[in-house]
Task: structure prediction
Amino acid sequence: MFPTADQIALAIVMACRPHREDPFAVCAGELGMRARHLAMEALMIGFPDARRVGLGKCLAYGTPRSAQGQVIGAKKGKWWSDDHVDEIVGAIVAEQYGEQAQ
Result:
């Protein structure tokens, strides 16, 4: 299953908040955006069957095929937060699990 546009947008906005980055800049493909990597990781966890290249295109990676590799590199940075990624994952999949519980 591939995330909806709303789920992708939510992941981007939530990933931008702690670093005070502009969601529009992420979508425009500006370089040096930490939020892009956080959102990519959250979407890969929340939607494990989604094609990584497709997610990379949605997040405006310059080279979508390298998106997963760039996330691996970003995880080595001191700024990386698995807790923040978990928070994003929870938000983007909450609707899916809420529907199942009812």
Q: What stands out?
A: DSSP finds six helices and no strands in the chain. The first helix runs from residue 5 to 16. The CA atoms of residues 12 and 96 lie 18 Å apart.
